[in-house]
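Recall the central idea of this unit: under ordinary conditions, the amino acid sequence of a chain determines the structure it adopts. In this exercise we apply that idea directly, starting from the sequence alone.
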Amino acid sequence: MESSHISHLASLVDVEQNGYLLDVKPDEQECEAGGESGNSAASESDVRERRRKRKLSESSDADERIILQNLRALISNDRDVIFWHWNACLTILHLANTIGSAVVGWVTRVSNLEVDIWADLPNWNGTNPRADLVHLGSYTPGRWIWLFSFVSMVSHAYACTHFSSYMRHVHEGVMVRRWVEYAISSSWMLVLILNLFGIGDLVTIIALAVGNVMIMYSGLIIEWQIQRKEQALTTWIVNALNSLVPWTLIFIVLGMNRPPWFAYAAAINYFVNYILFAVVSVVHIHYSKMHRKDKDAQKLLNRRVEFGYMFLSAFAKTSLAWLVIGGLLRP
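Accordingly, the structure predicted from this sequence is:
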């Protein structure tokens, strides 16, 4: 594609454009031609005309060079445009999920399910502390399912409107925006799952949500370590061990009571996606070691990792939202 355009544009240098030939003679030949005419006035006029033609040809040459530069830039950025298309499509997808889940959550019987929030507060009675179970209130999780889709929509829309900086971060392999979005959206997804299993202790919810934020931050640290060619596998192992904490609690609750089927389905769905995110991260670490001296191969790897994260994020949020809504709407 580039060679055909360049050949076509190069051929224009030897043809007539705007009524003038682009291949003109230099000033010395113009003066000699003027001297041979025998008419000094006509010679000067002829020289001025030739100079004007040459300026036009130089201007045309500059235009051709600009076109060639833009053509090369377009070809080099052609594979980057697909990232803009993906982010635009995911923005529309999460917008539809946001509107749909919000409407369903507020106007249907999804809003009938309420979860009590409580806390064990210490009560010092004499010398022995006693924990008092305090009811702090209740809320309806079904009305707030739209929140994590909304956060993802804003994140992808930001990538579309700041595309040049977004692609720079993709090629560098460090995507701060992604991990900030994950810290917010995945923490809220975790809270919803905990509530569906009947876990309403405020201290437990806050502790697990903050722990999830730290797990996302560790993912960002791993990308920094990969970029700096540092050892990232140890961080990944510690991060994986930290990820077991909320799931251990969820599986304990699974064995102690029998929540509805959609709660099991939501937990399994989220757990599988959690593992797949970890797989993408460890693949990133492994192949980055192989491409430490090859910048082009590292950029290609970073692009594929970004695609993997985008697909998993869209699938996890969309499936979880409508799985929970469908379960809450069951007869």
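The chain has eleven helices and four strands.
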